[in-house]
Amino acid sequence: MDVTAIFGSMVFNDAVMKQRLSKSTYSDLIKCIEEDKSLTMSIASEVAAAMKDWAIEHGCTHFCHWFQPMTGVTAEKHDAFISPAKGGGVITEFSGKELIKGEPDASSFPSGGLRATFEARGYTAWDPTSYAFIKDATLCIPTAFCSYGGQALDKKTPLLRSMQAIDLQARRVLRLFGKNVAKVTATVGPEQEYFLIDQNVYAGRKDLIYTGRTLIGAPPPKGQEMEDHYFGVIKTRVSEFMKDLDTELWKLGIYAKTKHNEVAPAQHELAPVFTSANIATDHNQLTMEVMKKTAARHGMVCLLHEKPFKGVNGSGKHDNWSLSTDSGENLLDPGSTPEDNAQFLLFLSAVIKAVDEYQDLLRTAVASAGNDHRLGAGEAPPAIVSIFLGEELDGILRAIAEDRPYSKRAGCEVEVGVKVLPHFPKDTTDRNRTSPFAFTGNKFEFRMLGSNASIAGPNIILNTIVSESLSQFCERLESADDFISEVTAIIKDTVINHGRIIFNGNNYSDKWLVEAKKRGLHNLASTPEALPHFKDERNIEVFEKHRVFTREEVITRTEIMLDNYCKSVHIEALTLAEMLKQDIMPAVSSYIGAFAKSACDAKKLIQDIDLTVQQEQLSTLNKLYADAYRGTQELDNAIKSTEKIVELEAKALSYRNKVIVAMEQVREATDKLESIVGSKFWPVPTYGDILFSVK
Ligand code: ADP
Ligand code: MG
Asked: Rounded to the nearest 5°, which phi and psi values hold at 440?
């Protein structure tokens, strides 16, 4: 296969634009993309006409404004290119106006009350910084989704705003270093984990179908303990899926690069090459969609839930994040000259300060019903946000803070902006995989994200909070007498005031929980505890200051997220109750009946037969049946009482503390039953059946 020939073949990318647009329109469009200049209608019209011709040549009949509402998945409304012509015929048409703006009937997307019901319309606006592409014979135009009042109803709008904020502040810092760069871009490379299971076992599990995860299931005899799956040989069927997936992603211009098996059976990972945060977000949404579709073509189902199986590692997403100038300088790459080092340490300090000051915001960015099962469960970082720097960098920063030489490596004296610091090699301890937020040589890796999440949220927050640190640094630097000594002072202050956020040890250990508490770090264990912090006054202020969210947007978003949490748990609870009543309990009852009958039959045959063990077994089954029955009743009651609560925060807490607790309790009895009820009687595929379903 010629990768270069198929790569981007379904994308209206730079090469296509160059070829199909007039020179002046092309250069205006590039200016608009690179410098955030607005577009005139005449440019839009020419671009639209070229896009339409290109799309029709590639077999398209429709176009759509592709956007990312608050549901976390993408939305699209397809319109045909046709327009009625005289004599009953049609002509194909696609105007500049249609390219720039769409008006989907938006009343059914979550808005948290932002879009009053009398004004149900929202509009989508073309985002020219992300290329249009073809999917299912439809020209898809990446768009932002706003209300008529201009409030963001989606994830792209605030992401673009946050990228503008960080561009502004980072350039402000760079100017102080004498560098006049045209643009600084937040760059992101998201690693995506997923499970692949056979369609047949999936079809047998209502819980997977309705909720994406299993709500019951006893541990299989073989799980991940042999550690034979991680980086193991990829099964033929999976490998065929992966090849197909790569091809589809490449056609869409997605830099799918690394693929391998993950820790759990049936678990895999895909990592793309990093790109701008905006494009990375679009591409990650597309990647998840293409994964599901490709799996279906191979008779499999791709599970993107954060925790599909209890007792088996769940799936996460690692958000690798850095800042890059338009000339390609990575601002988190330690330089080799004293000036570059000072600049690097300043940007590093900005991240440290931001993460410490806004731990709670970062925590909210990864809060979801599904992710609650992963964080802190010994397979993913705990709910406590901390930074891993590695011993070397940590040592250097602390030496600066304490005005002493850094002695670990010969010839290495640290004095910001004067002595040459070593070009820090990727730290050997960088294999610490337990940290939620790790510096990995030239970028930070935010590892708390669940596999399902849109990466927009975490990157909106990262960009915003780092912008805030940078703007505070700029204020100090702009009024400083001596630039380099102020840089040094800022680094020192950061280590002194925010050093508590740095932790290089094992984040999975219980000791860390105790230590983090001593350090006064947030430990927001669950989603209902974390989410309300999104609208804490200081968080609203930082969003407003950098024009990422208005107060109203923050408040409504908090509501949408809490509501989403409640709905997710509600659906899970109803699904579990239904499975128990309609499938599990009847199956157990049949088994008990069959078991009792065979004992009675034996008794008929041999009157003095010893049936002690049968009686024992029968009473165990009966006791567990009773536990499951009562547990189901309690679950029903918990659902009912929670449904009645009106206030969202209290409702979410009740889902966490009552409904989920009831779900866990009834599961205990059910899983025990699964391990003793005859397999022919058990009505759903077991963990073993599911995890080893792809041969
Ligand atoms: P690991 O498995 O060790 O975490 P991978 O190589 O699988 O690492 O993934 C690293 C990810 O980080 C890739 O998506 C890569 O493109 C991305 N990355 C590398 N450099 C940067 C950068 N400067 N900004 C953002 N992401 C980056
Ligand atoms: Mg990683």
From this structure: -120, 55
